[in-house]
Amino acid sequence: AQSVTQLGSHVSVSEGALVLLRCNYSSSVPPYLFWYVQYPNQGLQLLLKYTTGATLVKGINGFEAEFKKSETSFHLTKPSAHMSDAAEYFCAVSDLRGNEKLTFGTGTRLTIIP
Amino acid sequence: DTAVSQTPKYLVTQMGNDKSIKCEQNLGHDTMYWYKQDSKKFLKIMFSYNNKELIINETVPNRFSPKSPDKAHLNLHINSLELGDSAVYFCASSPRLAGGPTEQFFGPGTRLTVL
């Protein structure tokens, strides 16, 4: 069975500071990994995904994440936080068995301090 | 606009009632999903349909019955509503491509409140 752990349900950073949101996964097969963002009262939007190939993945809005198999991690980073980054962030894992099932982490609420 | 749409956006009802939530996607995707997001923001898949065929059913009470009249629509009917059904329900869709899971596109959500 797959699972995702997001360390820190709430993260606060100052505007302009580094954003680091942590995600660790558990999967018995090579995983596909995703980060989604949810703005208040909206649905989820894909930030980036890792499938195969290059382990450093760049996404929208200046975010990137690195797949580290040895650490079973897929942490999300952004060099300089912007006020508009305030949202809920979800890490998710899927597998290659083709049933398209996404297992989500519990989410991390990112607050940006002016 | 091309998107995943859900109706209604808000649904307030009494315990014991039966209600439906509708979902439509005009992205041409083959696969559609229903997710439940609880008050702690935890998001869990309920059902998945591929081209009108049920492919994922995640131990959901049989009071919940999805219906897919065609591959662009996936509706969720809930019988005998309970307080614990209060949540935000998201519909999503994705294309079915060779090579594994792809991006899922989410609707705006339906906030269900059971009184």
Structure description:
The complex is a heterodimer of chains A (114) and B (115). Chain A is mainly β. Chain A has strands spanning 3-5, 10-14, 19-21, 24-26, 32-38, 44-50, 56-58, 64-68, 73-78, 87-94, 103-104, 108-113. In chain A, the strands form three sheets. In chain A, strands 2, 5, 6, 10, 11 and 12 form a six-stranded mixed β-sheet that branches. In chain A, strands 3-9-8-7 form a four-stranded antiparallel β-sheet, with no helix packed on it. Chain A is globular. Chain B is mostly beta strands. Helix content of chain B is 0%, strand content 55%. Chain B has no helices and eleven strands. In chain B, strands 2, 4, 5, 6, 9, 10 and 11 form a seven-stranded mixed β-sheet that branches. Chain B has a four-stranded antiparallel β-sheet with strand order 1-3-8-7, with no helix packed on it. The mean pLDDT of chain B is 90. Chains A and B meet through strand 5, strand 6, strand 10 and strand 11 of A and strand 5, strand 9 and strand 10 of B.
Total strands of chain A: 12
- Our count of helices of chain A gives 0
Largest sheet of chain B: 7 strands, mixed
Distance between the termini of chain B: 34 Å
Main attributes of the structure:
heterodimer, A: 114 residues, mainly beta, 6-stranded mixed beta sheet, 4-stranded antiparallel beta sheet, B: 115 residues, 7-stranded mixed beta sheet, 55% strand, globular
Reconstruct the topology from this structure.
The complex is a heterodimer of chains A (114) and B (115).
Chain A: E1 3-5, E2 10-14, E3 19-21, E4 24-26, E5 32-38, E6 44-50, E7 56-58, E8 64-68, E9 73-78, E10 87-94, E11 103-104, E12 108-113
Parallel strand pairs in A: 2-12
Antiparallel strand pairs in A: 1-4, 3-9, 5-6, 5-10, 7-8, 8-9, 10-11, 10-12
Chain B: E1 4-7, E2 10-13, E3 19-25, E4 31-37, E5 43-50, E6 53-57, E7 64-70, E8 73-78, E9 87-94, E10 105-106, E11 110-114
